TrEMBL record:
Class of enzymatic activity (EC top level): transferase
GO cellular component terms given for this protein: cytoplasm
Family, per entry: Belongs to the methyltransferase superfamily. L-isoaspartyl/D-aspartyl protein methyltransferase family.
Location within or outside the cell: Cytoplasm
Keyword Transmembrane helix in annotation: no
Superkingdom of origin organism: Bacteria
Keyword line: Cytoplasm, Methyltransferase, S-adenosyl-L-methionine, Transferase
SUPFAM superfamilies: S-adenosyl-L-methionine-dependent methyltransferases
A GO term for molecular function: protein-L-isoaspartate (D-aspartate) O-methyltransferase activity
Subcellular location, principal: cytoplasm
Pfam families: PCMT
The protein's name in its UniProt record: Protein-L-isoaspartate O-methyltransferase
Provenance organism: Candidatus Campylobacter infans
Length: 211
């Protein structure tokens, strides 16, 4: 799929808007400018607004600002492999595909996983791999990961995910209950995990099982 010039112009304008607020690095700004949002957003919504929008199966596509905050915290530029828990629409993984070499994204809702796969194929994105599975289990086949991103909220990060993170690696997750969530950046040093609270957020919950 060749991305239309008008779409790219709107993506570039969106990247400028985000950067005015968050002062994006050149690499992250370019990732937003090069990622078409229309294909990921629901048809009834303005894909270039700064709002979150509901998608299928009670899930949401996060606002571009939230995606940017998570991407900044993850610091995935030139990383070899990144694990994402909660593929959803696929937009976050598409952004990361411009920064890291390989993205492994897990989605527990089969229809969303299949739709995301189709979108990546249509866009010619070849370094994002989507798996239909319970995200609590991670994806041990390709562990350990340089970076792990949870695109769903949890009360606490499952220990199994920390076990799949490289020494020196970073894990970013929305942590908290209900609407009391914060973006937390964890860094692993051997058996020690340090944490840094970054910003308030609101994500759908990390659930068990497959749907």
């Amino acid at each position: 799929m060749k991305i239309q010039a008008l779409e790219l112009a709107k993506c570039a304008k969106l990247a400028d808007q985000i950067s005015e607020i968050l002062n994006l690095s050149p690499d992250i700004k370019q990732a937003f400018a090069n990622t078409p949002r229309t294909i990921f957003a629901p048809s009834f919504a303005d894909p270039f607004s700064l709002d979150a929008h509901p998608i299928d199966s009670g899930q949401w596509i996060s606002s571009p600002l939230t995606v940017a905050k998570m991407t900044i915290a993850l610091n995935a530029k030139n990383c070899d492999n990144v694990l994402e828990i909660g593929c959803g629409s696929g937009y976050q993984a598409a952004i990361l595909s411009h920064l890291a070499h390989r993205i492994f994204s897990i989605e527990r809702i089969e229809t969303l996983a299949n739709t995301a796969k189709a979108r990546f194929k249509e866009l010619g994105v070849n370094n994002v791999f989507v798996r239909f599975d319970d995200g609590n289990n991670g994806w041990s086949s390709y562990a350990p990961y340089d970076r792990i991103l949870l695109s769903c909220g949890c009360v606490s990060v499952p220990e199994r995910l920390f076990s799949q993170l490289k020494d020196g690696g970073i894990l970013v997750a929305p942590v908290g209950q209900n609407q009391q969530q914060n973006i937390i950046k964890y860094t692993k040093f051997g058996d020690e995990i340090t944490s840094q609270k970054l910003d308030v957020c609101e994500f759908v919950p990390l659930l068990s099982g497959r749907a």
